[in-house]
Amino acid sequence: MSANLESLRRKVEAGEVLSDSELSALREAAAGSAGPTLWLTVAHALVNAGAEREALPLMERLRRDFPKELQVRLGLARALLGLERHGDAEEVLREALVLSPGDPEAVKVLAVLALRRGEKGRAQQYVRDVLERDPFDAEARLLKEELEAVELPAEALAEEQVLRPEFNAALAAALRRAGVKFRLQGRDVLVKLAGGEVARVNVGSLYGAYRGGKRGLAAHVEKLAAQLGGMRAGLGEDVTALERGVRPVLRPAGFEAQAVGAVHRSGPAGLEVFYVLEDAEYVRYLPESALAATGLTVDTVDRAAWRNLEAKPAPVRPVVVDRGVVRLAETFSGLWAVAEGDGHDGARLLTAEQRRRLALQAGEGPLRVSLGWREFALVCRESDAAECETLAKLGHAPDGIPGLFRLTAEGLTLL
């Protein structure tokens, strides 16, 4: 696959809308291919652009020609859901589960559909099934929280209430239509601001502010997309609020190209420290313009950020790696996850309270560390050769930090 074609495929996977020329190039490449992969990418590109009706016959043809391909079934279900043909989508998802029993992507969508019908118990069982296989599945954990919070009234909730996953999907579609560059990441969505900076927007707060029924969802998310597309980085001059809300995050070298205009400094082990500002509505990378507006310095922000993170340590949980997937362990395993899941777990390893909690589990000696996932940090004793080898083979997520690190009382160093 050529570099240009691979770039187009990645754009489609990220949910971006292709230009007419890019879509034509993708179609031309697909026409000369033998398997379903490129044609499936074309179909997803159409769905990204809101052209589900055009994508549907292509998906149907792929299902006919490649009846054993799981991704074709999942893509077909996505197109059907976009057209609000929920019953047909559920049937296709069940076909997918025949091909791949327990497939987490199919099961999570089935959970959402069950809750839409008011079948909370069935939805909870679907989510439990996913979390038993992978307790670190961010979407399943989010669904679990929503299921615990929702109360089903006696009449027609499934027809009227917009659930969090449905809200997320509608917002993403509206952002694509508005031409806003974004990327979903756990509970948040990264949005490129009008001024070029990157904001981390808390979708939970947007969902919590939504009080309309299903019929008002489309207009609501269209308005949100317009607001987010025009949002700028100005944070006002509330110094106290800024100092109280800022948190540090670790990012790989060169990350400033992705978070343009964000405050950062050199960190340990060749990493960089960026700062995320949280408030009731948005969570975003702190822009350099905020320093000029408030009179704060990078050093002042840095001290406040680490002080705030020190006060919020994460649980340390025993885990195992099962066929390349991190899962909770029922007993002592020699491998632990620092797993608050808010994106700050790598930075937490540098705080005194988190180190104290780690020492209670793993002892006082040097630790081997993987920062390959933003949802958790993995550690084992450096003296445990088997677990160190496990970490070395595990790799990292696309948005994680590659490589392994050594954590001692002196700090974090790259191996």
Task: List strands and helices in order, with pairings.
Elements: H1 3-13, H2 20-31, H3 37-48, H4 52-65, H5 70-82, H6 86-99, H7 104-116, H8 120-133, H9 138-149, H10 157-160, H11 164-177, E1 182-185, E2 188-192, E3 198-202, H12 203-209, H13 217-229, H14 239-245, E4 246-251, E5 264-266, E6 272-278, E7 283-285, H15 288-294, H16 298-310, E8 316-322, E9 325-328, E10 335-338, H17 345-348, H18 352-362, E11 367-373, E12 376-381, H19 385-394, E13 404-408, E14 411-414
Helix pairs in contact: 2-3, 3-4, 3-5, 4-5, 5-6, 6-7, 7-8, 7-9, 8-9, 11-13, 14-16
Concise structural overview:
The chain is of the alpha+beta class and 415 residues long. The protein folds into four domains: 154 residues, Serine Threonine Protein Phosphatase 5, Tetratricopeptide repeat (Alpha Horseshoe), CATH 1.25.40.10; 66 residues, no CATH class; 72 residues, no CATH class; 99 residues, no CATH class.
